[in-house]
Design brief:
about 120 residues; alpha/beta; Trna Endonuclease, Chain: A, domain 1; 5-stranded mixed sheet; two-stranded antiparallel sheet; 3 helices; 7 strands; about 25% strand
Length: about 120
């Protein structure tokens, strides 16, 4: 999810965090009240800052979670997903995408455009 859209979709972000807590994830970091904020990554020579929506651990592995909701800023969303996918593979972590009803087609379309068809979104 793009940073400017986080306030509008805070309820779904909270729902996603609850889902992850119920499935055994620990040390959850998210940009909502009551949770520590995840680490941000800055692009060199630019003001663009990328922050994963949710970061959590399970069985000693670190997971990066992205919320996929329809957005007009698909270019920024695509670059964020590619960066997080690359970062997770470099450090032997995991990258997952969470979506909800009404956003499946949008998510599948972006994953196909990015050639990340091996990713199966978590549907809440």
């Amino acid at each position: 999810m793009v940073k400017s859209e986080k306030l509008q979709n805070e309820a779904f972000l909270k729902k996603s965090v609850d889902y992850l807590e119920n499935t055994g994830f620990e040390n959850i970091k998210a940009d909502i009240d009551g949770f520590e904020s995840p680490k941000s990554y800055s692009k060199k020579n630019s003001e663009v800052e990328l922050t994963p929506d949710i970061v959590a651990t399970k069985n000693g592995l670190k997971y990066y979670f992205e919320i996929s909701l329809k957005s007009d800023k698909t270019r920024l969303l695509k670059s964020k997903w590619l960066f997080l996918d690359t970062l997770s593979r470099m450090k032997s972590n995991r990258f997952k995408i969470i979506t909800t009803k009404g956003h499946y087609k949008f998510t599948d379309m972006l994953l196909e455009e990015l050639n990340l068809t091996n990713k199966t979104p978590i549907k809440i």
